[in-house]
């Protein structure tokens, strides 16, 4: 019985290690932002949110110019992540991939482990799911976010994750830009 328990523990550790190894894209940068400010009602963004989204089209990014744009998929309650990236998408001619449910950040990590290699990716996500996204990519949310979560009302931060040749987050080069 003890041998079976030890074998089960070893297999579980191996499975976790293989999942973690796929977490990040190789030689890449991933920048994560919160979507722009909410409209008073409905799934869109407010006038302040529209201004913020427009400003993204002309600003410099702390991790470099994005070559991939990803947004959490639209829901009945929110189209904000996609709407946040639309002006930038139009300005640089890169489509927004909004095919990822924010409750499944592992899907983004799997996608980026291949498609994001050697690239700079900008992700617009929802505040509540930000820690899970950072974890899925191989980062520790507490290393970037106070208390491990994205504060309510904060829309101007960027988490920058740098990945090495093995797809691991490089702690000394990854940071929160306020």
Automatic annotation (TrEMBL):
Keyword annotations from UniProtKB, A to Z: Signal
Signal peptide: 1-23
The UniProt record lists the keyword Signal: yes
Protein name per the record: Histidine phosphatase family protein
Species the sequence originates in: Terrihabitans soli
């Amino acid at each position: 019985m003890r041998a079976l328990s030890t074998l089960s523990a070893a297999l579980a550790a191996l499975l976790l290690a293989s999942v973690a190894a796929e977490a990040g894209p190789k030689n890449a940068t991933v920048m994560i932002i919160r979507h722009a400010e909410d409209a008073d009602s409905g799934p869109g963004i407010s006038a302040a949110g529209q201004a913020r989204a427009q400003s993204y089209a002309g600003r410099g990014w702390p991790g470099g110019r994005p070559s991939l744009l990803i947004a959490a998929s639209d829901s009945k309650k929110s189209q904000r992540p996609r709407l946040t990236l639309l002006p930038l998408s139009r300005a640089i001619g890169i489509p927004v991939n909004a095919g990822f449910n924010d409750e499944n950040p592992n899907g983004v990590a799997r996608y980026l482990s291949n498609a994001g290699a050697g690239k700079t990716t900008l992700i617009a996500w929802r505040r509540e799911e930000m820690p899970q996204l950072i974890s899925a990519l191989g980062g520790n949310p507490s290393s970037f976010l106070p208390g491990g979560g994205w504060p309510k009302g904060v829309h101007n931060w960027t988490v920058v994750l740098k990945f090495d040749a093995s797809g691991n987050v490089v702690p000394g080069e990854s940071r929160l830009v306020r």
